[in-house]
Design goal:
binds flavin-adenine dinucleotide; FrhB_FdhB_C; FRHB/FDHB/HCAR-like; binds iron/sulfur cluster; three-stranded antiparallel β-sheet; oxidoreductase activity, acting on CH or CH2 groups, with an iron-sulfur protein as acceptor; eight-stranded mixed β-sheet; alpha+beta; Co_F420_Hydgase/DH_bsu_N; 17 helices
């Protein structure tokens, strides 16, 4: 192997916007290739070189213990809890724990900047990655941009600005690439705050999803697939619309998700220091996974703004997951009355807390495994991490 000179990335040229990316149709537009760090793309790209176990070892001091179910599902962690802000941030995705941690880190001088994603002036769902240096800029990035977002496209600016202490907020594929080039950024300290992520879409795909699912696609300001087995849409006028998962037009939506997300097995953002989502927590609460000491330090900063409770788990997901596999595969859509009924029944007796998170992970991993087997059989062995093979192995898959 030839040694890479420390400034080698400066000689690489960012790829032109819109040009074909090295991961081809599997590219999730994480932003790395928009910078001179494209030099490292073959090692760094989550869709070319899956290396979660090695990077866990490097950044958390160990990789998942495959004899521990919680490690297999949720990744390396030292703590997990349910939490919510006692005073939620208006307009945040949930209660705004992510934005609050970022603001606290900036205010206390732990970091000089925060990589996060605002939206463009013209389009509330069009991502605009920034390096925020004020609390106002962090707040302007609150709420999900439910589209592929090139968060890493601002990485060149980090090095040029001379910043030495940085917080990056991002989803799994962005964080995998970031970890792979972390030591090239010239930083003294990098903090990584992750969210889980699944079923993301291009901006065009998002429009199709909204058009097929919501009663008023143009007024949606926020949506989430919630723990009550319904999609919740919030509209401009403050009203909430709910649509049961089982009533989604699966046949029309089958191709809406980005191919990158159909081959992703890093739902829980394995390489972040701290992960803030919702799916392992009771309805209305957020779910926090502390992966290492850095993550614990970050969470400590906002503990006095949070109400917390231990994680819980209830129900048994297996049969529901097994039933969902052929239903998704065949693109079955239930009539709305049946979907609502099924939603009510499953909410009463279905999986809750961590078991709901396992339900969601199992459903997505089995679907994605089948997709890979059919479309990228040669990549299957290297690309699917061992923990995911274990999860998928519990179910009977169609050919
Ligand atoms: P806020 O304080 O509102 O802050 C949100 C932060 O997310 C902002 O800092 C912003 O920079 C960042 N962000 C927004 N959009 C993107 C994007 N496209 N890429 C990278 N960063 C972004 N959690 C689950 O438990 N299960 C899921 O299935 C799940 N799916 C998700 C899918 C997507 C596409 C995204 C972006 C997040 C998903 N999450 C999921 C995380 C969850 O929806 C919340 O983002 C999380 O709980 C934080 O809420 P908050 O109120 O603390 O965030
Ligand atoms: Fe480049 Fe990121 Fe696309 Fe991979 S996913 S090809 S690293 S932009």
């Amino acid at each position: 192997m030839t040694a890479v000179s420390p400034n080698a990335h400066k000689k690489a040229r960012a790829l032109k916007p819109g040009s074909r990316r090295p991961a081809k149709e599997l590219c999730s537009e994480c932003g790395l290739c928009d910078t001179y760090y494209v030099h490292y793309v073959k090692e760094a790209c989550a869709f070319i070189n899956q290396q979660i176990a090695d990077l866990e070892q490097e950044f958390h001091g160990r990789s998942r213990d495959l004899s521990q179910e919680n490690d297999v599902y949720f990744g390396v962690h030292q703590d997990m809890m349910a939490a919510r802000k006692t005073q939620p941030i208006e307009g945040a995705q949930w209660t705004g724990i992510v934005s609050s941690i970022a603001i606290e880190m900036l205010n206390r001088g732990l970091v000089e900047g925060v990589v996060c994603v605002q939206n463009t002036e013209e389009d509330r769902f069009q991502p605009k990655p920034v390096i925020a240096t004020t609390p106002e800029e962090i707040l302007a990035a609150r709420v999900n941009k439910p589209t592929l977002s090139p968060n890493l496209s601002v990485l060149e600016l980090v090095e040029q600005s001379g910043m030495k202490r940085l917080l990056v907020i991002g989803v799994g594929c962005q964080i995998q690439a970031l970890r792979a080039v972390q030591d090239k950024l010239g930083l003294e300290k990098l903090y990584v705050l992750g969210t889980p992520c699944v079923d993301n879409v291009t901006r065009a795909g998002l429009q199709k999803f909204l058009d097929t699912t919501s009663r008023s696609p143009d007024t949606v300001v926020y949506y989430e697939f919630m723990q009550d087995f319904r999609v919740h849409f919030k509209h401009e006028d403050g009203s909430t619309e709910t649509v049961p998962f089982f009533g989604l037009k699966t046949n029309e939506l089958k191709d809406v998700f980005a191919p990158s997300c159909m081959t992703c097995f890093d739902y829980v953002n394995s390489l972040a220091d701290l992960v803030v989502g919702y799916m392992g927590a009771p309805f209305g609460w957020q779910w926090i996974v502390v992966r290492n000491e850095t993550g614990a330090e970050m969470l400590d900063l906002v503990k006095d703004q949070l109400e917390t409770q231990p994680v819980m788990s209830q129900g048994d997901r297996h049969q529901a997951v097994q039933n969902s596999i052929p239903a998704y595969d065949k693109g079955v859509t239930l009539p709305m009355w049946a979907a609502k009924l099924m939603g009510v029944v499953i909410e009463k007796i279905g999986p809750k807390g961590l078991e709901y998170a396992r339900f969601s992970i199992d459903s997505h991993f089995t679907r994605n495994y089948l997709y890979m087997k059919r479309n990228y059989p040669d990549k299957l062995e290297q690309h699917v991490p061992d923990y995911a093979k274990r999860i998928v192995g519990q179910y009977k898959l169609p050919e």
